[in-house]
Design a protein that fits this description.
The structure is a homodimer. Chain A has 23 helices and 6 strands. Chain A is mainly α. In chain A, the strands form 2 sheets. In chain A, strands 1-2-3 form a 3-stranded mixed beta sheet. A 3-stranded mixed beta sheet of chain A has the order 4-5-6. The N and C termini of chain A lie far apart (71 Å). The N terminus of chain A is likely disordered. Chains A and B meet through α12, α13, α15, α16 and α17 of A and α12, α13, α15, α16 and α17 of B.
């Protein structure tokens, strides 16, 4: 990997305000390297100085490699002239990603600084729904027609290819602009020059619709192993392309959303390091309060068995152990099922397969924990007689309760995501609280019911 | 998106055993479409019949699009002759992915069926460590030297490009085969034909080392927005390329690992739908038992306060509510911090930033839950007098305990992943059990300590 090891010299140049030398030094750097340097600079002022030293074309390319939050802070501090240069030079898909993050007022200002042509492009891309393919699209592609020769196509590319986002795939459209084929550049490169585009066509292509959800687009990229896909409107007209590098970002964002939802946080939609404290607390307080209100039922359940606790306080000692075991086995099962659903490894129609598997898993896991619990009571008792004369009843109660609670937790954890998906909810969002509450409350009921059955006539 | 809607006709052809027509029908299909059809066939026998109908080159291409588990089941049932055709025709990176999944005995057989040349390639790729770039690499690329003209390069590509995995980027090597530059095909397409490769070079390139971890490779792809990256050995010799479509799989696998670890399961490394039941139970039983043994301390903590519970059974009623609140706030915080660490949004050196944030978050979230808890007791009490004369003391105890427990849970949830990372452990793997146990046990201590302070001289 490429690493520039002249950082200290650069810092020195900036400290000495020797911008002429600095300009020379970075002249043969790659945009991504200059972007790295900008990130490392201590103040926004220095960042702006460096950015303004660059040739116009380079500054936009460098800017594209910066993270969104740095882009935002730079835009605020740059003069309108510089903002105009950068925004007009950015590729449309990266620009859309930036514009949709800006506050409405700044987006308006930014749009007003664009050239008429670029503004039309920017406004039309921003018009597509959030998380849609339209927001990821760039209209810079190469389209050919079936009647051209390979030589004509290559000449056309030589003259017009500079602006295209990618040249890996060229598209074939009919006279109305409708997409009729995609042909990889390699086909043109290995074909005789006098062949026609028509001869290379296989009349088969994969495309995205502009209103498709980005998660669907990700699935298409994965399935067909493409680096770029064409985007059409509902009439089949080719209006843009989406490249796979944007899909890596989509995959990461979707995974983050899933992870945060499983951890019972609304998806932050912003990096942990930059989201304002109050926004983050808002995202957390909602679910935490719902979980809390759900868990209040545990107090009611405990109240229902207050009489039993009063008679055998020893029962209370194992309450946290019992309900946490149910909770843990439930969260294992729901994590596995949620991820398998989201990867398409299992479908709703596989519900019976899931139930059978989790029934067996729950039974075996429950027996393992029951054994551990039983041993624990046996050992403690033989050391200290802590559980009194009826220790065996306590051990039997805890053991059987653990089997029941773990089986119940495992089954609920596996089935609830399926039910939620069936009802049209996102299984990741809503499972954790439901599973936790349901399993804790029913875990208590299972435990005390087993206790009453086992201890009737003795302790209870 | 491309969808074949002639499925019923196909099924009919197979049922009628009309393979001649079937062969004609699929003749102009894309490999990925035929792969889809194979997946939909009801029996392995039918799948094999269809696969054997295809021309040799097509069958390998179709096979590459099948999921690993289907590939495995087909290999077991195909004759050696067919296996040889398919394996020799597959691209080396996909073949490596398959071979590393096979049982050792089948891998040996498979290798023996390869041609001498392909076997050398396969054995050398399998020699790289698991999860390394070498395992993802294919040796099929195009290398040029600085002295060639653009015309020479394009002619060379036309003659030799058919086997290359991608033509999007060509590589420049020196006389010893060391990588000295990468040039995108677009540069050749837009350059005058008599220019030299040397004229297009910028002497700057990004590459991967063959022993690099796949997660590192993913980071490089994301940072530099590449669709393909060259791979060199430690001496700088160009030995292969890795394409971005493999990175989408890597991103998905890494996210799945993280998610499963957060859900306190060892990473399954196999789809939920195909992993044998006992293997899955093994992956779950380990953490579940560790969590359970950790949670046994809650029984000890409860035992320590048995005297207090005996005197005021009302205290026991809120135990599940209190510890689940600590657990939930802890899992929120640890989920956020683990994901932010894995995305590089925060680093170890930001620990103080994290502590400050989570201290404030914990305090505010704790106050919210305390208010809810207080209100709940107030309302229940005014309806039913369930908590007796000292209900206010109970409400105050629960309220203050919630503030303490939620703050403690939030702080521990945030800090433990950082500490584990600092000690060299994977924060995702080990956080959940530590946080859960620590927060539950200390939550009980906080609760009963607050109770003793508030209720001394009255209830206790």
């Amino acid at each position: 990997m490429l690493v520039k090891i002249i950082q200290p010299e650069i810092i020195e140049l900036i400290e000495k305000r020797d911008f002429a030398t600095l300009k020379e030094v970075v002249a043969d750097w790659q945009p991504v390297e200059i972007a790295d340097l900008i990130v490392d600079l201590p103040t926004v002022q220095d960042q702006i100085i460096l950015l303004r030293l660059l040739p116009q074309a380079t500054s936009a390319a460098v800017f594209e490699y910066l993270a969104l939050d740095i882009q935002k802070s730079l835009l605020k501090s740059l003069g309108n002239q510089d903002v105009a240069t950068i925004l007009n030079g950015m590729s449309p898909d990266d620009r859309t990603a930036l514009l949709e993050e800006l506050p409405a007022k700044m987006t308006k200002l930014a749009l007003s600084l664009l050239s008429t042509e670029e503004r039309q492009v920017a406004v039309s891309l921003l018009g597509y729904p959030e998380h849609s393919v339209g927001r990821l699209m760039t209209p810079e592609f190469i389209a050919t027609t079936p009647s051209w020769t390979v030589q004509q196509v290559l000449d056309f590319v030589r003259e017009n290819g500079k602006d295209s986002e990618t040249l890996n795939v060229l598209y074939v459209v009919d006279e109305k602009g409708r997409l009729i084929d995609d042909i990889r550049i390699r086909e043109f490169l290995v074909a005789p020059l006098n062949h026609l585009v028509r001869d290379l066509m296989d009349d088969s292509f994969v495309h995205l619709l502009v209103d498709d959800d980005r998660e669907k687009a990700l699935g298409v990229f994965k399935k067909y192993d493409r680096t770029v896909l064409p985007v059409t409107d509902n009439g089949g007209i080719l209006i843009g392309i989406v490249t796979v590098d944007d899909m890596l970002d989509v995959a990461e964002k979707e995974a983050t959303e899933d992870i945060q939802k499983i951890g019972a946080v609304e998806s932050l939609d912003e990096p942990y390091s930059t989201i304002p404290l109050l926004s983050m607390i808002k995202k957390r307080a909602g679910w935490l309060s719902i979980l809390f209100i759900g868990e209040m039922f545990t107090a009611s359940a405990m109240g229902f068995f207050e009489h039993q606790i009063n008679k055998a306080v020893v029962l209370a000692l194992f309450v946290p152990l019992i309900i946490s075991s149910g909770g843990n086995s439930g969260s294992q099962a729901s994590t596995l099922v949620i991820r398998a659903l989201s990867l398409g490894e299992i479908k709703l129609k596989d519900w019976f397969f899931v139930v059978r598997r989790e029934f067996s898993s729950g039974l075996i896991l429950g027996c393992i924990l029951a054994t551990l619990g039983f041993l624990r009571i046996l050992i403690w008792q033989s050391i200290s007689n802590i559980y009194g004369d009826h220790w065996l009843l306590v051990a039997v109660t805890v053991g059987f309760s653990l089997i029941g609670v773990v089986m119940w937790g495992t089954l609920m954890g596996a089935v609830l995501p399926l039910i939620l998906r069936r009802l049209g909810f996102d299984p990741a969002t809503s499972s954790a609280p439901f599973v936790a509450t349901l399993v804790d409350v029913t875990g208590l009921i299972i435990y005390f019911t087993v206790a009453i059955l086992v201890m009737r006539g003795t302790l209870l």
